[in-house]
Protein 1
Amino acid sequence: MASRKRTLLKVIILGDSGVGKTSLMNQYVNKKFSSQYKATIGADFLTKEVQVDDRLVTMQIWDTAGQERFQSLGVAFYRGADCCVLVYDVNSAKSFDNLENWRDEFLIQASPSDPDNFPFVVLGNKVDVEGGRARQVSEKKAKQWCASKGGIPHFDTSAKEDLNVDDAFQTIARNALKNEAEEELYIPETVDVNAAAAPRRPQSSCC
Amino acid sequence: MAEGGGKAAAAAGTSGGRSGGQQIDAFTAQEILEERRVMCLEAWNQYALLGLSDGTLLLASPRPADGSAGSEAGGYDSGSEAGGRGGGSGTPAGPQSAQRGQDGQPKQGQPAQQEAQQAQQQQPQWAAVQALRGFGKGGVKQLVVARERSMLLCLADDGVNAFVLAGMRLKGQAGRTRGASMFAWHGGSDTLAVAVKRRVILFKYDGLEFVEQREASLPDAPACMALAGGTLYVGLTKRDYVAIDVGTGALSQLFTTKGTAPCMAVVSPSEVLLGRDSSAVLYGGDGRASKRGASGSSGGKGATGGRRRGGALAWSAPPAALALSAPYAVAFSEGVAEARLVEPLDSADLWQRLPLPLPAAAASLAVAPSAAPDGSLFVASRESGAVVQLRPVSFVRQAAQLLQLGEHEEALAMAALAPPEQAAERRQLEDLIHLAFGQRLFREGAYEEAMLHFGMSSLAGPLELLRLFPSLAPPKLLAAAAADQAEEEQAGGGGPGAQQGAAEAAAAGEQAASVEDGATSELQGEAFVAAVQQLMPYLLSHRSRLAAAAASPAQQREQQQEQQLEEGRRHAGPRQQTPAAAAAAIEAAQDPGPSPTTRAVLAQRRLQGSATATLLDTALLLALLALPDSGALLRFVQRPNCVDLEAGEAALRSLGRYSELVALYQTKGRHAAALELLHALSQGPEQLPAAPQGASAELRGLPGVWAAVKYVCHMPEGERDLSLISTHAKWILRADPDAGLEMFSNMQPPLPPSAALPMLTSYAPHLAGPYLEGALASGAAPPEQYEQELARIYLERLVGGTSGTSGTSGTAGGAAAAAAAAEGACGEGEGAAGEAPPESLPEYGKLRQLILGSRFLDYEALLRVMPQHRLLEVRAALLERLGRHTEALRILVHRLRSAPQAEAYCDRVYQRRQLALRERHRADLAAALRRQRQQREAAAAATAGGAPAAALYGCSSASTARSLQFEGSTAGFLATPAAGSGAAATKLQPVLSSSSSEGGADIYLLLVQVLLEEEDASGGFRPVQRAPDHAVWGEVACLLSRKRDAIPPLRALGLLPGEVALPLPFLEGALWGAGERRRSAAVARSLRRAEHVGLLGQLADAQQRSILLTPERNCSICYKRVGTAALVAFPSGLLAHYSCWRRASSGTGQQGAAGAAVNGGSAAREWR
Ligand SMILES: Nc1nc2c(ncn2[C@@H]2O[C@H](COP(=O)(O)OP(=O)(O)OP(=O)(O)O)[C@@H](O)[C@H]2O)c(=O)[nH]1
Ligand SMILES: [Mg+2]
């Protein structure tokens, strides 16, 4: 049976409203930043090619609405994600506290096959604001939380000043791929495709 | 000859059917030169380097293409024997037609123009541009470009020499290499390996010279060799391969090939491909067969990275030579070149066979060791002297071929190899590939992957997606959206290349349609649900895009531009148009305000948005209906949406999802339908065509009523329809009066009582009262208008309620019985209590309370409609408010026989009176003070002596006013229509004036009077003449005693019948009370006086000052001595004669001086 290398990765960005999810994605994909706030309605995605080691993969990055009233049917987006990006605003303790909820929500809705090892990446955004003097969540505190959740990678970012954005997404892509690799290990080669418990990721047929 | 070769290639290519893999046009072959002396080849920049047997180095390059086919322009170096016209003129057409032939049917619409382009670029004529004679002594045997060092390594009879590129100056020489047969160079480690006879000498180049490292001996003469990583691979003439460790010189045997000769090609700095039999094996830098993994060993084809089948490439014949042009390896054997992917993906093993005029023997084959920058490979036959260029077909074109072959993954990987200049073409092609791939995956049931690919293709809009799900897209809506889109495309296609774009879009559409045709039968059952689940996010993302576009015109504009830009990219084709389109877009983006044209575009977009949005939202609704109910559908329809009502209604109805339907009706403003449905759900769900499902299943009965109530309450004010509300109020009130009442009370903003009351009174009269109470309390009903209404309602309830005409608490007793009961009550007290007299209804107390507390009731009118002998307490209250106290008290005392009530009545009146008086008094006092201030101001010019007098007068006048009024108030007979204070007072005023005998504290006297009355035969009342019975007398006495403070004793005595014994308790109380009052007044007066005197003393102390009068002090006016004359002192301390001051101040008459003088005067008096 053919094993198949994914060249498409699905990444989903979650976090409170206004933390800069859309801005981060726009900075990464389009190299643009706007200081005007326009709340995301529903959800949408952008794609970006990224080279991970010797593989060229395409990331499909789903940006979601932080505002509850715009999250119509949010769950539909979570399915099949290869990596989940949790974003908070370092100048808002609340947005950081809510990461826990976002993570739980994701794990419940997406129900990945191995929740304990599902790749998350945490981004503390807007570090540029007031030169960091407005900061409410220290990097140490954030990293502690990340460590307690099984060593989630953490980045201080600024969508405005394009700080760490590329690095963060590089890690996101890499971890998404790692997820795939680990998943492959979990699927025995002799798996019966006709069995009811077919693997989650559909395998290409070998023709 | 070359021409013939080209044609032959085409023919052979088509015929060459091999098991496994797909045939592809990867290279085109062109014979570029004919040079019989050629010994070796190498590619460098745009040049092909030819080493000749006479020691000449020939540089050949394609001549710049000038449109005129250039066949006649033979003006190149006459010294060279370049392939002349024969090869040049014929070739341009050759491979071109070959491609067409191989394609079989030209199925794709897209590459047509590309082909034309390529035809122009392709097949330029080559010419030798430079010939360096005597470059290599005794013939140039091998040429290798060391790119990292910008050196050309050349093997000649005198050994390996290094030349500077591009100057071709000799730069270095590897010693002891004279007579060498071949060499290998490894750029990364600057290693040179030279084979001399059966020895290999290893050098390291240090930038200046080649330093010998070590030597190794070979078991046999070498036939070919290559360096990879730290290993030198050598193919021996006996067809063995050995590997030599560069670091140690240790030799290890590898294998023997059954092919004609050993051959190898460098794949990457750490990998070589070794020919083995009729295949080729990858070997790594460690001397072992390579296990291609994720190591950084890609041959420039990272994207594919697939696993190799057993790590070997299989050719159709044992190769004589190998070459590499990523991602292909090319094997040369007699008369043919065969290209294969080095690293095929599993699904695709691509290959191509090109017939070439090549000899069988490896020895007579010269292959350039590296590919040109454009991927071209050069190969020559030493026998015929033909030099052939294998030019790769552009990756985009190859990807297009793969798309047609259905090798989508390989196509994507190939497209990814396209150089950045071809990004636009690549994108355009990728859109097609993703679309086709998605469709294939979809058919195969890999919905998630399919959707991912659809998501990547800008061609897979909502329409394309929904065409895969016919049951989610009502044909009518689909057609409308498609028409809109087509229109938009036409409108948007004003720019350059629009027609082309449209044609291409049409072609793509056709293609999409044709692919679809295979999958028209829609999915069913679980597969359908699974597919819909995957589809959902993409529908939502399209929805988000539409919403975002509609939300901000600015963004809309941007999108429009982006689209233009993309269209430019996609359709304009020629590269140079893309920057132009981009520039236009940027320009437009900087344009601050929308120009008329863009505004028109905006409007159009919005229009377009609506049809697509309708399609999308309807599809979403249908999709959510297909999925297990999670409440998402309800949430979806509860928010603003563009669902097509007709389609949505039909779907929801047929599945019994009525709650969602109600919500849909609500968002569409179809309130009548929504309420009708709620009515049915609550009152007769079994009559609905489909059994209610989901949330609506629980709406039978009361929940449905409450749902309807909630619905009505949330109806926007502007959409309220009174007749609709009225229709539904009827059944709601019938089903649950409480809910109905809630509905009328909780509408936001409140329904005007003028609208609500008629409904209530006609459907649930007993609720009108409670409703109005609430409305009055909340301020929804203005009291001046509705208190009367409320009183009327109460009254109706009381009168009608007992007569049994309506309502819940109506008793069986008819009107007559009720009247009789009322009469009985007035005759014998609470005799007929058993028959639920009106007095027991809550309205009775409420009405009384309303009458007593209201400020707006028309009492006269109420009194007129009051039944004569019933509701006595209410009547008494009315009379009270009308000031007809005698009548009221008579009712209380004689009809109801309730002395406490009567006394409470009097207390109320008395207190109200007192309050009015106090208020009037306060007003009077304020007026008096105001008057006094005015007077003082008027008397400002008056003399010093006048002011205190005026103040004194003012004060006394105020106190006079008080006493006067007090008397007036206690007397109570005086009609004082003075300035009214407060509404209550004004209401009472006319009463006071009309009946002079009633008012104020007299009310108690009135009570006494009434108590002492008795009814005469005619129903009238007259004062008792004889002594009243003991009970009455006791009551009167106690009353008088309790109210002694309010009753003037003398007047009370006058009222008592003459023959009555002295009303001792009263008099006693009155006297004691009077004595007590006098005493306390005296005490108060003494205290006040003491306080006053003390104050005067304090004032004197405070004002006291001293002036020192000595015989020397002068009058400051006449400058004579003051002496003992009367004097005044100025505040400054100066003194003056009183007479002088009088004269001076009357002369000047200055106010300030006068003030000073007065003070001075008083001080002087003090002093004296
Ligand atoms: N100074 C600064 N501002 C930022 C940064 N990132 C985002 N912002 C601003 O923060 C605001 C919100 O950013 P968005 O990216 O729209 O936030 P969001 O997380 O997408 O919000 P929702 O769509 O409502 O969930 C915008 O005004 C941005 O300009 C940053 O790194 N630095
Ligand atoms: Mg956002």
Protein 2
Amino acid sequence: MTMNIKLRIWRQANAQAEGKLVEYQLNDVSANMSFLEMMDVLNEQLISKGEAPVAFDHDCREGICGTCSMYINGRAHGPQKLSTTCQLYMRNFTDGETITIEPFRAKGFPVLKDLCVDRSAFDRIIAAGGYISASTGQAQDANAIPVEKAAADSAMDAAACIGCGACVAACKNASAMLFVSAKVSHLALLPQGHPERKKRALAMVAQMDAEGFGSCTNTYACEAECPKGISVANIARLNREFLNASLISEEMPK
Amino acid sequence: MSWMNTFLTSSIGRKLVMSVTGLFLITFLIVHCTINSMIFFNDGGEAFNKAAHFMGTNILIRTMEIVLFAGLILHIVQAYMLAAKNRQARPQGYAVSNPGANSKWYSRSMTLLGTLILMFLVLHISHFWSNSRLGGMMGIAPLEEVQIGDKEVLNLYQDMMVTFQSPFVIVIYVLGVISLCWHLIHGFQSAFQTLGVNHKKYTPVIKNIGIGFSILICLLFALMPVSIYAGWIC
Ligand code: FES
């Protein structure tokens, strides 16, 4: 089955330029194409006409790297639940539909070009404390440190975060709390993460605030739009970690 | 105490202030609703006037009244500061947005609902608080007194009976209470989440208690002006 669609895509030449929505007509789109393949077809046509192709981020195209973004018809990663844009198929749309595609919008995610945004703010948040310090040398025996099954499962669920930024894009406050909470949680839940947990919570929250992300008002739009189904229970855990580090522990903020 | 400053100006610290003041204001609502529900005894206002006299003269309650105003102001000021910061976090909005697909309208409208409640509060305080507390001062007419037992107490009951004769006032009160209801349905459970309480066993209970509490307390509040206007209470 094929369909004809109308696209309205945000075009912006560079970070400083003014952008605007530009309309394109795309015919004979296969329903079994992925959304990014549809974009590839559009770009082929633009190139053959001598126009600049639409810049968009993508890498693995199998839903694991978190590189693809796009705000499609008012939703981060489009209308399909638990899915990245690369895992979205054209069968989710109908013949004759108008599809509006915008970049993720946030002060912390400035637009670089067209649909590409700079998400290095997330890297700086990780660099602030989203790691554990480990001594090098002989690898430790596997399972040398016992971990409770439930904690291991919750840590694994939090670690599923691919850092795509859909939580920020979907949040009315452009808050990065779901991302930060997933990163803090998967380390706080495991014994290896314990020695640095207080420093980590303080440093990562401070960096999150410095990057200009908003604060969480518990609308839970992030959880609903997260392609990996990260739970807002992690945000409560981040709150606990941060309150504990700030008010109960003797750790001083930098 | 720079650590305290760092904490209170952090995003989570500001949210904690919202949560704690919000829960405190909820405890006030419970007290306020309980005292005012005395009018439903329909005893010519005796039980209500007695209770109001106790609240107006007890030193502990009067001290808490100052704390209450402080809490209220903190909740309001912090809310507007957070709302402004959150707006700055997305300088350019989306051309097409479909927030209904991922969140509830009232959870996204807390500032609007809070502003409606604030507008209602200004009217409400001018109706009842200023003349009972400041009557006789600053040109505000004092309330009449009424004999209960061997005491002369302010006749707040009569004040209510007079105020709730205007249909305009009834409509404003009912709208104010409806705004409060939606504000509480989100705010109650949201306060716990901010405090870090998210638990497989307790969170569903907290959510249900929050919804039940919000509806019950707002029904009682709405019933007060409505039943006086309708003449069910006289
Ligand atoms: S391109 Fe890797 S997740 Fe979509």
